[in-house]
From TrEMBL:
SMART domains, alphabetized: HNHc (SM00507)
InterPro entries, A to Z: HNH, HNH_nuc
CDD domains (alphabetical): HNHc
Residues annotated as domain HNH nuclease: 82-136
Positions of the UniProt region annotated as Disordered: 154-177
Pfam family for this entry, one: HNH
Protein name: HNH nuclease domain-containing protein
Lineage of origin: Bacteria, Pseudomonadati, Campylobacterota, Epsilonproteobacteria, Campylobacterales
Species whose genome carries this gene: Helicobacter gastrocanis
Residue ranges with Gly residues bias: 161-177
Amino acid sequence: MGQLDLIMEFFKANPNRDIAHPEVVDWVVKTYKERTGKVFRDPDRGICSLHQQGKLIKVSKGVYRYDPNFVLHLNLEDFSPALKKQILKRDGYQCVICGAGEKEGVELHVDHIKPKDLGGKATLENGQTLCAKHDFLKKNFNQTSNGQKDVLTPFRKRTRGGGGGAHRLFGGGARRV
């Protein structure tokens, strides 16, 4: 049994109902444990993934709905391996926020500046290198102004004149190259 299938099983049993995140997570974690004897590690990511695939409607923060009559066909673009290499090379194999990179043993991610579920394309201009920590923070802050302040303070302090990369992380117009 796949974890995403189990999440969809819950939503299909509750069609056209606005369901708060905790209710879904509680049921999925409990049911997965009962059926497999294993722990469901990241139901939050699964719910987000299903939303990005167009299978769930995000009603508001932490509230989702399954509508069997609503089918969204998103053309989500992932970076090709060659494009990932180009982006990593352009950014010097280091996070554009904190400067940490492969030399420090940090896991690097190639990130869409404008998220793909909001129409961001897999292009060199829309790509940036982030360490796992800053990629996680960007996704969790969902590009809010509060998130910008918290995530970008270290970067602004370390750059000449501050700026540049702040717009890159959160999809603004300026580019640090």
